[in-house]
Amino acid sequence: MSRSGSSHDLRRLDLATAHLDAPFAIVDMAAFRANAAAMTRRAGGKPIRLASKSVRCRYLIEQVLALDGFRGVLAYTLPEALWLAACDTSDDIVVAYPTADRTSLARLACDATAATSIAVMVDCPDHLDLIDKARASVSDPHQVRVAIDIDAGYEALGGRFRAGARRSPIRSPADAVGLANAILGRPGLRLVGLMAYESQIAGVGDNPPGRPLYARAVRTMQRRSAAELARRRAAIVAAIRKLTSLEFVNGGGTGSLEGTSAEAAVTEIGAGSGLYHPTLFDAYRGFTGQPAAMFALPVVRRPGPGVVTALGGGYLASGPGTPSRVPSPYLPAGFRLDKEEGAGEVQTPLVGPAADGLRIGDRVWMRHAKAGELCERFNDLHLVEGEAVAATVPTYRGEGQTFL
Ligand SMILES: Cc1ncc(COP(=O)(O)O)c(C=O)c1O
Questions:
Q1: Atom of ligand 1 nearest to the CA of 97
Q2: Each residue of 316-329: pLDDT tens digit?
């Protein structure tokens, strides 16, 4: 069974949102702030570049960027980065994933503010060609800031075992030097940074519930991977710094803040999920965040004893399609999803002892498995301070901005 909240929180959240009709989403701001502070502590003095995909609400992104310990945005698409720069949310934006969007690249090249505020990610000569072509399509193009994405995955058994996201083909110092030289040879491009995201550590919990053998395998893999990556990352950074100066070397994520920030070669961590603390981040031994983002569903049916049915709720998280990606009942405590129906498109049955105490129109509180994706389901986030909604702010979707 997943983690449940306290009856005190249930009373408080119900009271704060009594005037709202569910479904709706909230952020519990005390938890959000505590999570931000904990992330900063865990980063050990290195700045956190805020992974905007894990927040997807401009108001909250701006709140976090105003805190000590957070600096700059790790955006997820170039249109998003252009929008954030135009909104003055940040003048230090790194797009973490490569783009093939010619229109946006052309907009980047011809907008002075965007061109100085944004760096785009590259990992092959084709990316460089796309940028050069976009520059050639506008008059008086600006230099485009680029960063190299480095594969931080873990490989063993001669490459037969691999853990970590399939990202960049750039893996060795020689690979990185080759691409860096290609960038340095193009006057329209400026190499400003490196990024190496170890998803197999930062995004994989080392304490998965009810899976002790798998947990042991994960810990072994993570220990070996962290040691291998620290050596490789340092060698790559040293090799590139011989060619040019770098503004940043980005690594890590919410699940690896301590470890990644301890590497001398890394200058900043990219992280965001820890702010909302979705359920996937319950599965770590090293830290315990506070659930901050939740959604409320209305009870609309009582099919029988021990079960209530809520409207909607099928907000599955992206990824491998495993049960870990399904949203989890949070309050009242002790609810579980029905095995047959799970979290459904139009209805979600909830089974548990609390069911018989709920009436039509009451609500159940749920947590998403991932962080920012929840915001693709709602136009607004209600920001709860104690026993009241202090403000209601739009998500990216609420501002008409749906990037992925
Ligand atoms: C490049 C990169 N850095 C960092 C992160 C970590 O983000 P978070 O801490 O929000 O999970 C991610 C997540 O996918 C990522 O893709």
A1: 1
A2: 999 999 999 999 99
